[in-house]
Amino acid sequence: MVARPQRKGKSHDAIKRSDHDPHVIAAVANLFWQDRKVDKARNWFNRAVTLAPDIGDFWTSYYRFELQHGNADTQRDVLRRCVAAEPKHGERWQAITKAVENSHLSVEALLKKAVVLNARYPEAVGALERGDPMPN
């Protein structure tokens, strides 16, 4: 990641090069979140999940953002939209959804589990991918 003063320029360049790439849009949303620009981050997360509703990693970030900065209505809305989209892709999302112990879970439960795992244990994603036991 580049230094904080250069982020705006780099993100602007990335958006110019690939205007409709949902990964770039989600990365910009995360930058706005880090800079505590809540309204802008919400708009960019919404744009990312609208462009690529099948990528669960975006839904996880968006829901985690709403849990931190949103109200109950916005949280329910993101949850409802995620369940309707039934995401199937994303590095972290697939590591969680394809784990045998999660095979019976609904999309709602998977989203909540993904948020908890990614927030508490960023290293747990790698453990899930390797099939290692979960960290305590």
From TrEMBL:
Entry keyword GTP-binding: no
InterPro entries linked: HAT, Syf1-like, TPR-like_helical_dom_sf
Protein name per the record: Suppressor of forked domain-containing protein
Lineage of the species this protein comes from: Eukaryota, Viridiplantae, Streptophyta, Embryophyta, Tracheophyta
Species per Swiss-Prot/TrEMBL record: Eragrostis curvula (weeping love grass)
Listed SUPFAM superfamilies: TPR-like
GO biological process, one term: positive regulation of primary miRNA processing
GO cellular component, one term: catalytic step 2 spliceosome
PANTHER family (UniProt xref): PRE-MRNA SPLICING FACTOR, PRE-MRNA-PROCESSING FACTOR 6
Domain of life: Eukaryota
Record keywords, A-Z: Repeat
